[in-house]
Amino acid sequence: MAVRKRDHLLAVAQRMFCETGFQPVSVDAILEEAGVARMTLYKNFGSKEELIVATLKREDRMFRQWLVSAVEAQSDHSQDRILGLSTLCTIVLRLKAIMAARLSVQVLSIPPPGHPVHCSAREHKEMIRSYLRVLLPKSKGRIL
C-alpha cells in the first residue's frame, strides 16, 4: 500500500511540475491533487526538492525504457538501429521536445548549477549520450 501511495504521489507531482513548473506548484497543491497526507510526502521524499529530483529520475527512467525498447525494436543490428533513430526522432521526439523544453527551462531556473536538480538533468543527458555511443560503430563513437 505504501509503495502505491508513493508512486501515485510521484506521478501526480510529475504531471503538475510538467504542466506548471517546479516553483509555482506548492506542496499543498500536490497533496490535495494526490489525495495523500503531508506525512506521506515527507516520509517518502523528505522535502519538495527531493520530490522534484525523484520526478526527474522517474522521467529519466521512463524515457530510457521507451528509448531502448523503441530503438531495439527496429533491428538486431546496431547500424540499423542508428538509422531507425532518425525516423524515431523525427516522429516522437517532436512530441517529447515540448515537455523536455519546459523541464529544461524549469531546471535552469533553479540555482546553483550544483543543485541536485541540475545533477539529475546532467545524468539524463549523459545516459542518452552513453546509449548512443553503444549504438555507434566504434570508429565513430568518439563524435559524442
What key attributes describe this structure?
single chain, 144 residues, mainly alpha, Tetracycline Repressor, domain 2, 76% helix, elongated
Overview of this protein structure:
The protein is mainly α. It has one domain: Orthogonal Bundle (Tetracycline Repressor, domain 2), CATH 1.10.357. 76% of the residues lie in helices and 0% in strands. It has helices at 2-20, 27-34, 38-44, 48-72, 78-108, 116-135. The longest helix has 31 residues, at 78-108. The radius of gyration is 17 Å and the shape is elongated. 13% of the residues are buried.
In short:
With 144 residues, the chain is an all-alpha fold. The protein contains six helices and no strands.
List the helices and strands and how they pair.
Layout: H1 2-20, H2 27-34, H3 38-44, H4 48-72, H5 78-108, H6 116-135
Helix pairs in contact: 1-2, 1-4, 4-6, 5-6
Q: Report strand %.
A: under 5%
The residue-averaged pLDDT reads 76
Q: Characterize the main sheet.
A: none
- Return the CATH class: Mainly Alpha
Low-confidence stretches: none
**Shape field:** elongated
Order of helices and strands: HHHHHH
Number of helices: 6
* Cα end-to-end separation: 43 Å
| Percent helix range | over 70%
CATH architecture: Orthogonal Bundle
Q: Report Rg.
A: 17 Å
State the oligomer. single chain
Number of strand elements: 0
